[in-house]
Design brief:
single chain, alpha/beta, seven-stranded mixed beta sheet, 13 helices
Length: 345
């Protein structure tokens, strides 16, 4: 009986071990299947041709204000990253509604949550990011002059540290030449801009030199915010043959108010970028803000994947500029443009 009992006990123990082994194998198989299914889901969600990374990233985007140029730059930035990394990137996108103080709050939030990279779309977000973090990579876009924005004296083309990006500066000497080309009889050029924007002040200072070299008188007319745009624009109209507006975010957000002054006064505006020109100008030396943002997105991919060190990346510029004109405003003011100017779409 003892031998029979021992034999039965041995069989029961063997069956128990087999069951445990089968259960473990089933669990492992189920887990593996779930992992495979998750990977397939991510792959199917990514754009065609996009690589699916095993890493995941969080990118914070702070845009100063909503207008066509900055919107296009943000979209180009996101499109470039998604094309390369698919759903491996999550965007935390916020708009500061034109208030620098909001930029500080937004950027500090990104720094506190330790995002993997920050896009600063315009000068105020870039300045806020420079103050908030020295470790998180920061890329600027739609920033005209990094040296002025970040108070860099010995500018070499590379910011260094944790900051780089792209510049929306079109050649100011060519913009000055455009004024003389379109309005050869003009004597006085009013420079209309927001004094709170460091990059606008930089453009005004530089183009003043070019205009004076051409024998023109350049007079600055600065407004501090949206509340005095119309009154300052009227003052500029009363005393100028032509008005020049640099790449300026406050002006870009108030083109209707400016147009309501300059068009009835029959004073033409040469604009630093296409968005301003479409609202109140007659001509511009245009860049593509979408392409600028796209180039910034390519830089971001290199940083996120470890292919490049942000501290060694030189600031990039728009590869092309195009002479464009606003047909409606040209007709209203009787302005005729040369054949090498393209109509704005």
């Amino acid at each position: 009986m003892k031998k029979i009992f021992a034999a039965v006990l041995a069989v029961l123990m063997l069956l128990s071990l087999t069951a445990c082994s089968s259960s473990g194998t089933a669990a492992e198989t189920t887990a593996a299947a779930a992992e495979t299914k998750a990977a397939e889901t991510v792959a199917s969600a990514a754009p065609a041709g996009a690589e699916v990374s095993a890493e995941t990233y969080v990118v914070g985007i702070c845009q100063l204000v909503q207008h066509d140029a900055l919107d296009a730059a943000t979209q180009g930035f996101k499109d470039a990253i998604i094309e390369e990394l698919g759903d491996a990137v999550t965007f935390q996108e916020q708009n500061a509604s034109g208030e620098p103080a909001n930029c500080t709050t937004i950027i500090n939030g990104f720094a506190s949550s330790n995002v993997d990279l920050i896009l600063a779309n315009a000068t105020a977000p870039l300045q806020a990011a420079a103050a908030a973090t020295s470790t998180i990579p920061v890329l600027g876009t739609s920033v005209t002059d990094y040296a002025s924005a970040l108070e860099i004296d010995d500018w070499t083309g590379t910011v260094g540290g944790n900051i780089s990006g792209t510049s929306d500066l079109a050649p100011l000497n060519e913009q000055a030449a455009m004024i003389q080309e379109l309005f050869p009889d003009a004597q006085t050029v009013g420079l209309l801009y927001c004094s709170a924007e460091a990059n606008s002040q930089y453009q005004v200072d530089v183009i003043t030199g070019y205009l004076e070299d051409m024998g023109l008188t350049a007079v600055p007319y600065s407004f501090t915010d949206t509340n005095d745009v119309a009154s300052v624009a009227q003052n500029a109209c009363d005393n100028s043959d032509v008005i020049y507006i640099p790449t300026d975010n406050t002006a870009a957000s108030n083109t209707e108010a400016i147009a309501n002054v300059v068009l009835p006064a029959k004073v033409p505006v040469i604009a630093g970028e296409e968005g301003i020109c479409s609202g109140c100008g007659v001509a511009t030396l245009s860049i593509s803000y979408y392409d600028l943002g796209y180039a910034t997105g390519k830089m971001a991919v290199q940083i996120l994947t470890g292919e490049a060190d942000v501290s060694e990346m030189a600031v990039q510029y728009a590869p092309e500029v195009t002479k464009k004109y606003n047909a409606a405003n040209c007709d209203a003011l009787g302005v005729t443009v040369p054949e090498d100017y393209q109509p704005m779409g």
